Structures are given as C-alpha cells and as structure tokens.
Amino acid sequence: MEINMKITLFITPFIVGLVFANHAPGANDAQLTQTIDEQKIYEFASKLAYSKDAVDLWVQDKLPFAKYDGELGWLLVDGHWKDGVDGSWSDYNYNGSHERKMINYADKPCRINSYGDSFTQCHQVSDGETWQEILAAHLGEPIRNFGVGGWSVYQAYLRMLREEKRVPADVIIFNIWSDDHYRNLDAWRNIRVRAVGGFSEPTHPYVRVNLETGEFTQHPNPCPTKESCYNLCDVDWIVNRFKNDFAFRTQLAHEFASDQQVDRTYDSVREMAQTFGINTRIDSAENMNLSAHELHTKAALYSSMRIVEMIETFAKETDKKVLYVLSANSIDVARMAREGTRFDQEFVDFMKEKGLPYVDLLEAHMADFAKYRIDVDGYLKQYYIGHYNPRGNFFHAWAMKDALVEMLNPKPYGYVDAK
To answer: In this structure, is residue 249 part of a structural domain?
Structure first.
C-alpha cells in the first residue's frame, strides 16, 4: 500500500517523528541504533532522564494532583486549581478509592460506572459540573467517575477490571478521547511528550502491535514499584530499556534528521515501515514525519480495536452492558467542520461493523454546529477551554442521554411515571 504523501496530516509538536508502534524487537530493531552513533543515543537519553528530585515527588507522594500507582501508572488526588471557565477555580475531590466525588443521589445504589481519561474525569470543572453529575441529576441516580487525566484506553480498561470487582455496575460508560489511542502504545509517554511545567510522568502499562502480523501483546508497567522509578534517572538503564522501543528509535531519528548520517537514518525508518506491509517514500525529514504519523495512527487505532474486543469479552462474561462514547478535542472538531475528515474513521467503521453501541460526540458537534451562523472557532469557544467547560459537559451529557436511558432496565427514576 503506497501512502499518499499529498495527504495533509495533523502533526502536533509532540507527534512529529513519533512511534510507528511498539512492536516486539525483531531483525530491523537494531538498524536504527546502528545508523546513529552511541554518543548521540546517550545524548538523546540524557534529555529524557529525570532528576532524583522529580522522581522523589512520585515516590514520596508529594505531587499535588496525582499519586503513583504501580499497576496503572498514577491516580488522582484532591486539588483546587485555577483552571476553570473565565479564570475560575476548579474543585477536585476524590474518595479513598481515587474516584471523583459523587454529589447527586450519592446515597442511592449505583449501577453505572464510567471509565476513561481527563474527558471522563472532567478536568477544568468542579465536582458538581461533570457530565456524570449532570446525567445523575437528570436520571435520578448516581454515576461513578473513574476517569484519570492522561490515561490511555488500555489503562482505563485495566482500571475497569480492578473496579468492577470492587464496586460492580450493570452499565459501563467507556469514554475514548482523541489521543487515547496513541497512548496505548506508550510505555513512557515523556519520550514523545516532553515534561511540561515540571510534570514528569511515570511509566505505565502499554500494548505492542504489529499490523503486518496482527500481533497484539499486553505489557506491565516497566517501573512497577516506587523504587524502580529511580531507573528513570539512569541514562544507561534508559538506553538499555528503550533503545528497541519504536517511540525512542523514531524520535531519535527525528532528533538527528539533519545529521550527516541522515540518508542511512531514512533507510532504516523506511525498512521499519515495511515490517507493517507499507511501502512509502522517505527521503526527507518532512516525509519521514508524515509517514511516521500515518503509521502511528494506524497502529494506535488498531490497538484500541483489540482493547474494545477485550472489553466486550469482559462484559459478556460478567453480564454487563457497555456504552462507548467517542469524544474529541477541539482541533478534531474544527477539522471535521472545515474539511469533513477525521483521523479515527477506521475506528468508527470498526465500531459500526461490530454493531457496538456508541455515541459519537464529533458527529454530535457537527449536527449542533449546523444550527449556527458563526465560524467554527467562535462555535468551539462556547464549549472548550482546553477540556470541556461546564456547557461542554452539559453537551456531552445530553448527547449520550438517550442511548444511556435505552440501556437501563428498569428505567431510571426520572423516566418512571408517578403512581
């Protein structure tokens, strides 16, 4: 399959030159590191290495917004942050199990659990402004919120396995946001998303895929104990652990794309691409970045498809219903409005082919936008402040309300006629 290099792909500074996929080491894995001398590999690893003080924050539970978790990477803790709408403060409270505080009908039995990342957690709004609380107030019953900012589909799946043993629910809302697909493939996200504002992420569980062979394997957190997090301060350990990681290798190729060995670097990246059955022209930094992003997207979406299949297996074995919610960032909404394209079309097609119940917030936004006579930027300001503002969370809740009510049996209090 020849990749059309004329296709315009969205590439953020964090995605440029990124991973194709974290597949298992093979014959091609050593080629990239052979094209770039050892000194440069160590220079790159040195940029990734954490200071002991940065790791101390995790190990000593001193971060004001998160807490290290050996299995899942991290969980959230109480906070009060000036990150809300119109410069307001958002109030975040979590119980002993690190689920966000329930407010509406919290004293009633709960039969709905929700999982996902920060668009499930509802970052940038206070406890009572989440889409879960909006729905709970309307339905007349509570909804648990197990969302965690920065998480992948895979991390949310693992937490679902944990929490459904402890506080099982009849219905699961599984929210999947734009970047979550890519996060599945990260063992250590700071390889591709450099530490911002002093926030150094720990490693976390991940999956590896190979599109050519159909490989899909699950892998635990590379640093499963607090003490092992200090390995991220050790450049030798980082090189030995991640030198065969696609994120590390491809980011390394981009880092030294202007090096005198550039032609050999492109050859190596092209050969790695061919392990996916994809032939593409890679003879410049631009082409390499476009090809890497195209491959990364295919691998990321493939990984989410396999994880959804695992969710469905779990739901069938435990007699649960799952409603998937596909949420989107403002950039994806803007692109859809202007170009009519979306990066995750293959995943949406998969959901349709499987006949799985899902709510597509991107499509919901397009239907809503059609009612306005303003440009898309003006439209998005009504709902987004990075994450959803309170109005955005109301939009989220209302877009999925009917599908959720349809799943509930018996119907919620708000849908039962008074006797």
So the answer is: yes
Q: Is-cis flag, bond preceding 64, omega within 30?
A: no
Q: What is the DSSP letter of 98?
A: S
Q: How far is CA 1 from the centre of its chain?
A: 27
Q: Name residue 361's amino acid.
A: L
Helix spans in 141-191 (H) = 153-166, 180-183
Distance, CA of 64 to CA of 284 (rounded, Å): 43
Q: Which of 389, 338, 400, 403 is nearest to 364 (CA)?
A: 400
Q: Count up the domains in the chain and report the number.
A: 1
Q: Rounded mean pLDDT of 186-190?
A: 91
Structural domain for 232, as ranges:
29-315
pTM over 0.85: yes
Tokens of 311: 């969710």
SS3 assignment, position 145: strand
Could you give phi then psi for residue 173, rounded to 5 degrees?
-100, 120
Report yes or no on 374 lying in a domain: no
Contacts 24+ apart (CB under 8 A), 25-31: 25/244, 26/275, 28/268, 28/271, 28/272, 28/275, 29/244, 29/249, 30/244, 31/268, 31/271, 31/272
pLDDT at 367 over 90: yes
Per residue in 138-178, pLDDT (tens digit) is 999 999 999 999 999 999 999 999 999 999 999 999 999 99
Q: What is the pLDDT of residues 325-355, one digit of tens each?
A: 999 999 999 999 999 999 999 999 999 999 9
| Structure confidence by residue, pLDDT tens digits, 208-261 | 998 888 999 999 999 999 999 999 999 999 999 998 886 787 677 667 655 545
Whether residue 413 is predicted with pLDDT greater than 70 in this model: the reply is: yes
